[in-house]
Amino acid sequence: MAGAVDFSAGGYRFLPSVFQFSAGVAALSAHAIERVRFRNPVPLKQGFERIEQLITQAGRPLTSFCACELRSPAPFTEQGFRAFNEVYVVTLQKWGLFDGKVNPVARSNVCPEIDPPAEPSFHAFSFTVAATDSVPSFVIAGSAEVREGGASYKERTVRYGETSPEAMREKARYVLGELERRLAEFGFGWADTTATQVYTVHNLIRFWPTRSCGAGRRAPGSPGIMRVLPCKGSNTRWIAAPSAGNAWCDPAPSAVARMSEAISGLRPQAID
User: Fold this and answer.
1) Which pairs from 73-82 meet CB under 8 Å and 24+ separation?
2) Which residues share a beta bridge with 237?
3) Tell me: the pLDDT tens digits for 63-77?
4) pTM of the prediction?
């Protein structure tokens, strides 16, 4: 994986990865990353429309779209995953984000065991805003226990098909190491994160390494998969209704006091 690359049109840096997403993003100087979570998952097409509306209302270019969190009904086959990604990147190309080879937008994709969506949907997204004197902000893309490379998914998966405590500990060590490596590429560590999400259908306590990565949250995930995603360092979260409704601040642990004033174009009020 190459080092961080500036994407000045969006106000952030990114870690190049594969064509469908980057490994993480960090705000450039005079910018900050803000996260918007939908109250309910929004299907891909409608989600892109809502994201375009919200970013435009905030007075930001569509190139400020820097990360998203997806929810899917079930794990994809390798062929199905590529087909999905080829559709997904069409909008990014229209927005001036994807040039046909390099994609700066970080992403996570989880298949919930409980109450999965009927189709691939947006759970949340992040974009950059103009900011002065802001603390460093970033989003690291989610990682499962799958190594990078040209081999098949099965061949690249750490302890494929194994769920013993020893195998799960090895998977967890790999995932944490990968997230630490990505954080380090931006000059960050676990102490800089304001939120970390862990997804697995297995009993996390049985195999989670003793070297904690900070605040973790358990949620359903894909069977046999241990996934940490995404690590974030941001000040304010916004919750958006799928139709006319209210949005409000949900401050992260290190949120600054001037939350609403710090966000150009966004206020804790109706935004639909």
Assistant:
1) 73/111, 73/116, 73/117, 73/118, 73/119, 73/120, 74/111, 74/116, 75/111, 75/222, 75/223, 78/152, 78/153
2) 35
3) 999 999 999 998 888
4) 0.80
